[in-house]
Amino acid sequence: MTSPEFASNSDNFCYRHPDRQSFVLCQRCMRTICPECQTQAAVGVICPECMAAERKNRTPAQKRAQRRWGRRSTAVAAPVQSGRPLVTYGIIAVTAFFGLLQLIPGLDITGMLLFAAGYLYPDLSGFPFQPWRLVTAALVHSGIWHIGLNMLALWMLGRSLEPMLGRWRFLILYVLGAVGGSVAVAIIAPGTPTIGASGAVFALFGALLVIGLHMGANMTGLFVLLGINLVIGFIPGFNIAWQAHLGGAAVGALVGLIILRTRKRSQRTWQILLLVALTVLLLAAVFIIPPLLILA
Asked: Which of 85, 79, 119, 113 is nearest to 99 (CA)?
């Protein structure tokens, strides 16, 4: 039994069906909606009015992606969503914040966050064990041009990929790309310290390439851009860790393939398991292969 105060509060009932009690809010307009009015989104649920506005505001590219990735009647694990790419903006803001910290004299935020293989093998290197540097290296850069170009690429790619994949999948892609870049550096050039978000950005390249080819899009421009960036890493004098580019692109392509092959909602468990397996494989590779090479 409900109290008169509870019954008189319209916020406790679906705005489209005032006789139906609910405590679930639309993530767009924050109005209460009952189960019949709920449509699953990347995060939470949205109401019919917001869903209609979302479909109306989709770009032609997003509409093609939705048609290609599955019919609306089949719930997919990677829905096309509208709205601002909040994760992209958030990563840019956090990276810019750490860029400002790097300017503070005496703080040495770069030294605290950069990645070097020695931090993974304390018994061999004498360094403290700090595995989080696999990811934190993506937060610090060597200068204004370095951070500017990486964040520009993130902004350009994130606007397309994040609405397509959903926020959590996009974030997982970015983080795994950063890890993949560090792992490649540890395996190919274990004596090279590295900083920068290049591995994570190249993961976006790799994922977008795989997804674009699946959609039948013209990927010539992306192939050229990816090729130019990979070649730059081999030019003497640029001091760029091409290993991180290669590792990030490979991991991004694998993540994109996993999402493509497990895009139905019924395959969500498989998607999670495969992404976890990829993470375990990366960690196993970085903790097993370099020590064997060093001991050999």
From this structure: 113
With the C-alpha atoms ordered 225, 229, 234, 237, is the resulting torsion angle positive or negative?
A: positive
Looking at every residue in the chain, the average pLDDT score rounds to 83
Number of domains in the chain: 2
Quick check: is 75 in a domain?
Answer: no
Torsion sign (Cα): 160, 164, 167, 170: negative
Pairwise CA distance, residues 276 & 273, whole Å: 5
The structure's pTM equals: 0.71
Q: How many other β-carbons are positioned within 10 Å of the β-carbon of residue 72?
A: 11
Q: Is residue 63, in this structure, part of any structural domain at all?
A: no
CA distance 133 to 178: 10
What is residue 264's DSSP assignment?
A: B
Q: Are residues 107 and 245 in the same domain?
A: yes
Classify residue 239 by burial, with Cβ atoms within 10 Å: 0-12, 13-18, 19+.
exposed
Burial 34-56 (b: 16+ CB within 10 A, else e): beebbbebbeebbbebbbeebee
Give pLDDT tens digits for 65-103: 666 555 443 333 444 444 588 999 999 999 999 999 999
